[in-house]
């Protein structure tokens, strides 16, 4: 009888263990993200209405509300709340310290219209990605000026006006972290000082530590992140890119040589190592242009959120200095075309690299491609402000831009790439430059990503894409190995960066102008107009 009882207990224990294992499924985490707007970070709203402001009775300025995506994390044993920008264009999580020195100046603060516009245009000309052009360590020479910044040094405010606040709290408006208040915090005293700079001119400097992070109802232990005690950014950042782009590996100025750099487990990697997800992967759903929320699925995909078949393309290396390993989440953009008025016109047929950056509000591409695209929409160019003005008659269904990624076609309504106010439409595509890449580069921000369902497989260095479907329906599947139901794109095996150039393809004539009385039709940009005032903010919930 005793034997039977022991056997029965053992069987019961085994059954309970099996039930517990089953209960652990599914192995994914859903991170909700919120889309917010505001002409400054302390004026958040859910309105996205660009407007003309009259200044001094003469100058008209188009103020486009900055779009950013954020999500909330709980840090430490006492669950300190902080909103972070989820950024595929960087790889580090950093948050402002509760006593951080905040240096920030809004581009709208200047009393001079000319200075204000200069600041705004300077912002829009640079996306929110890690500034590799200035921050990449060079084995053959000394670090750049930006690399020489330390947490204890004075931080230059690149791209900002001179009226920066001193010791204000703008950078802690949406949360900060006090390590002394968390009993679970561990200072990483052996790590170098944290220092990072983004291409939009913002910087952050501080120190490294580990603590528990709670989101989606799940605790993630011993997550490495930086605490910034000096920053010119209004946003904490959750970088979820490749580990090789981490500040400890590529941006730190305290390393004497590349042999001293290292990578660590950032948040997606930590989720995998703790068994919370099965693969280092996630899918991004930004939802429609007017929607206020989206999501990131770590370790899973949602089959309800796309149409057709998910197709794979490789993440490509374009910075040869780093042992031919990809640093950023970029693929090859094989070609582009535009559609409208019954016409289909190719504007680029030569491949170039494209970075998917959820931390950038707008998109950037080689000048030759952008010029050809704009001319086919009869756009007028302002040499003063570096923007294209499009007749608002094009701002309606039926006019599209198609992006071709090795055979994957993603169609973007032209209206998603325009900002309209009082019959003036500004094209939110801007010229890109890169001195590090051997070929021209494009950066595809939120105005592109809202039209694509993108799955990032960081374990296998591939990205899957399909046209997006806007729906609240869910059909979630865990990614256990390769991306479920995904197939190689037609040009997967032939994708190469060696042939990547930005030769545009001119058309014999632009698309026919829609009928109507467009406010900008056939007109150049008067010098008295101030057509711009875009401020690129990277928050992501963006995600």
From TrEMBL:
Residues 498-523 are annotated as: Disordered. Its EC number is 3.4.23.24. Residues 69-466 form the Peptidase A1 domain. GO terms for molecular function: aspartic-type endopeptidase activity. Disulfide bonds join 392-425. One of its GO terms (cellular component) is extracellular region. The active site is at residues 87, 357. Keywords: Aspartyl protease, Disulfide bond, Hydrolase, Protease, Secreted, Signal, Zymogen. It is an enzyme of class 3 (hydrolase). It is found in: Secreted. Its main location: secreted. Residues 1-16 form the signal peptide. The keyword Protease applies. Residues 514-523 have a biased composition (Polar residues). PANTHER family: ASPARTIC-TYPE ENDOPEPTIDASE, BETA-SITE APP-CLEAVING ENZYME, ISOFORM A-RELATED. Belongs to the peptidase A1 family. This is candidapepsin. It comes from Australozyma saopauloensis.
């Amino acid at each position: 009888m005793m034997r039977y009882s022991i056997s029965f207990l053992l069987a019961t224990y085994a059954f309970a263990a099996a039930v517990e294992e089953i209960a652990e499924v599914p192995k994914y985490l859903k991170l909700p993200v919120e889309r917010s707007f505001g002409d400054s970070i302390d004026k958040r709203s859910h309105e996205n209405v660009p407007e003309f402001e009259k200044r001094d009775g003469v100058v008209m300025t188009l103020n486009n509300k900055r779009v950013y995506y954020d999500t909330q994390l709980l840090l430490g044993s006492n669950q300190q709340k902080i909103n972070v920008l989820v950024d595929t264009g960087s790889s580090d999580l950093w948050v402002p310290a509760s006593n951080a020195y905040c240096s920030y100046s809004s581009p709208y603060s200047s009393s001079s219209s000319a200075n204000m516009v200069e600041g705004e245009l300077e912002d829009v000309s640079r996306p929110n990605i890690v500034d590799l052009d200035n921050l990449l360590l060079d084995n053959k020479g000394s670090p750049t000026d930006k690399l020489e910044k330390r947490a204890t040094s004075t931080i230059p405010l690149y791209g900002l006006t001179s009226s920066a606040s001193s010791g204000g709290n703008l950078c802690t408006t949406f949360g900060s972290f006090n390590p002394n208040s968390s009993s679970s915090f561990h200072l990483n005293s052996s790590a170098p000082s944290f220092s990072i700079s983004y291409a939009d001119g913002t910087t952050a400097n501080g120190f490294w530590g580990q603590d528990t992070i709670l989101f989606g109802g799940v605790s993630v232990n011993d997550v490495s992140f930086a605490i910034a005690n000096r920053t010119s950014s209004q946003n904490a950042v959750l970088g979820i890119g490749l580990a090789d782009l981490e500040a400890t590996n590529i941006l730190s100025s305290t390393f004497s040589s590349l042999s001293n750099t290292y990578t660590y487990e950032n948040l997606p990697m930590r989720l995998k190592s703790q068994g919370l997800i099965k693969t280092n992967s996630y899918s991004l759903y930004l939802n429609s242009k007017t929607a206020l929320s989206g999501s990131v699925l770590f370790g899973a995909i949602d089959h309800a959120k796309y149409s057709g078949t998910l197709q794979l393309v490789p993440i490509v290396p374009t910075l040869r200095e780093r042992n031919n390993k990809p640093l950023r989440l970029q693929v090859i953009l094989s070609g582009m075309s535009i559609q409208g008025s019954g016409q289909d016109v190719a504007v680029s047929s030569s491949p170039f690299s494209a970075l998917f950056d959820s931390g950038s509000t707008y998109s950037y591409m080689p000048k030759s491609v952008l010029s050809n695209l704009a001319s086919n929409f009869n756009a007028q160019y302002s040499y003063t402000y570096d923007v294209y003005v499009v007749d608002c008659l094009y701002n309606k269904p039926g006019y599209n831009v198609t992006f071709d990624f090795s055979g994957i076609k993603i169609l973007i309504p032209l209206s998603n790439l325009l900002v309209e106010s009082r019959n003036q439409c500004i094209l939110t595509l801007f010229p890109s430059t890169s001195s590090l890449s051997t070929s021209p580069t494009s950066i595809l921000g939120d105005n592109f990503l809202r039209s694509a369902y993108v799955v990032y497989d960081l374990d296998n260095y591939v990205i899957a894409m399909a046209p997006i479907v806007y729906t609240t329906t869910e059909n979630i599947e865990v990614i256990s190995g390769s991306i479920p139901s995904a197939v190689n794109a037609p040009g997967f095996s032939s994708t190469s960066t060696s042939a990547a150039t930005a030769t545009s393809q001119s058309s014999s004539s632009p698309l026919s102008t829609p009928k109507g009385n467009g406010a900008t039709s056939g007109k150049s940009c008067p010098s008295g107009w101030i057509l711009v005032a875009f401020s690129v903010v990277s928050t992501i919930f963006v995600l």
